[in-house]
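SEVERITY: medium
COMPONENT: batch folding queue
REPORTER: lab tech (J.R.)

DESCRIPTION
The queue accepted two submissions in a row. Attaching both inputs and their returned structure tokens so the on-call engineer can compare them side by side.

ATTACHMENT 1
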Amino acid sequence: MELKKLAISSNDSVSNNFDSNKNSKIAVIWSALAPFIRVKVANGIGAAIRNENVELVDINLMPGVSNEMISEMNSIIDNILRAPKYRGVIFCFSDISSDDMKRLEQNNIACVTVERPRSDGKPGSVILEHGAGIRAAIAALVELGKKNICYVGPDESEGYAAAQRLINFKDEMLKRKLDFIFESAPNFNRDAAIEATRNLFASNRKFDAVIYGSDLQALGGLAVLKENKIDIPDQVAVIGFDDSASAVAVTPRLSSVKQPFEEAGFRAAKMLMRNISSEKIPLENLKLTEHLVLRESAVKGLTEEIIYQYE
């Protein structure tokens, strides 16, 4: 699928204005995301509705503890229900209770989620298969002769993506009868990954590959490996997540799991528009898989990128 790139300016990327002269409004509710991920998802949503007579209203959830976020979401839903012209809501990487979803749909406002399943179990989700990405990383590393594979990233308590990656990492390693090593590095944070990688060396645990929860964390890990004069990838192979621009700006170029953020936004918006149009096409659940882009941080001397997908 070819998607048109749409620029998002600082003036129109965030709006909490509930007034419009257009026929219909679609709310897009965002959790806190890395800016490049948000831009990619927003590009997909924008491409899907560019010929539609609707206004997108971006609403940001503030980072916070669970109870605060639930209260904030309730307030947002109240505002949407009070305002005229809302026809649908796209929840991007954000959680919503089944009760709030029911309130919206009882008022003929369709709901679609991006990245994770709906909390009420009903159709209307574009799900990123985070497990496929980390399983692809393990499979590729095993083919490359690596057996002592470590995962450095957030634990299961830090949201849907973090939980899916760690659960699938443990499961795939156990399935292959390999001991798994996990070192916690909260919030997909670079400094946390630096500390976690130093902990690996301090613990004298044997490892020959590290999968990091994000490219940002992998960059921190690479710095520590270089400090310790580690040959990458012969002694330790490194894989990140997100396939961000930084993955190809570092030496050695970083192998990374690519996630279809733009396609997810596109498909979610298209699904929603078809549901609220005269066609009234029912919502469905779509799953988008991740794949691994192999580069020099995993394969010595690799000059081309190799796309590796978990089977």
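ATTACHMENT 2
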Amino acid sequence: MLIKKTSRPKIFAIGNVLVGGAGKTPTTICLINSLKSIDVKVAVITRGYKSFIEKYKKKPAIVDLENALNFSYKEYGDEPCLIAETGVPVCVGNRAESYSKITSQFPEIDVILLDDGLQQQSLFPDKKILVIDERLFGNGFLLPYGPLRETLPLDYDVDATVFNNINEKINVNDCFKRLGLKKNIPFGYLEKKSLMWKNIINSEIGSEELKQKISLNYITTKIKPLAVAGIAVPNRFFMLLKKLEIDFEPLWLENHDTNFIDNLSYYLNSSERIVLMTEKDGVKLVYSKNANSLNKEQFWIVKLNLQLGSNFVSSINNWI
């Protein structure tokens, strides 16, 4: 597919109406991979929630994974580091300043994905993508009495919708009506294509082999694996493990926990205990000097290979 270069990169905002955990980051990664497959040059702008750049109001910076490896993920934030593993430029900081940095430093960029970009007013996106998860609209109340970030129906248009962790039996028209959306906008589902487990030292195994390791580990330690979830919806990870018939002890940690390693170490009562974690939590382990004292062979990170349906991807490609 031949992409015609425009005078400026198009901006696609990705966001949600619920607080945290809807699936913006996996949607962003799926879109990056889809656009890269048709030779579209992609970059990402994100504020870097709970990063040092946000906390200390630093100038925007392009995520440098080598720097994060030698220093800490905390400079950029956990999700920006995870997105940067796709190989595209990810700029963290003030959105307007980040746009200037991206366009001046990477003039070849065709599309900028604006993470958590629906409620912001610094940039004007060409298209808006709404991500909805299994919670739909919760109890229908705004924070702090419910999970909604803004009132419904929405007072702006959305150009596409992604459903995450929702089966295809959902009544899409009812959902769109509640949101005040047009009925004919594209929608798609985040689908699990495959699942693997990756060790920090880069060995990769399937779930059956992992369960064998857990069984052998239990014989010697008599301790169940520790399942760690420092994410917005921890139960989603725990339910995945139950579906895989893995017996575990759950550990809830704060979403975007900046003291993740210290808090995790507090609960590790054995240097041989197997620890299972999400990709986002894995970032905190990989890009952290504090993790050097841990036995990295005991940690296994789930690698979900997600994809968006081909019809939805085609609709997005037509925007370019």
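NOTES FROM REPORTER
The CA atoms of residues 12 and 106 lie 17 Å apart.
No errors were logged for either attachment.
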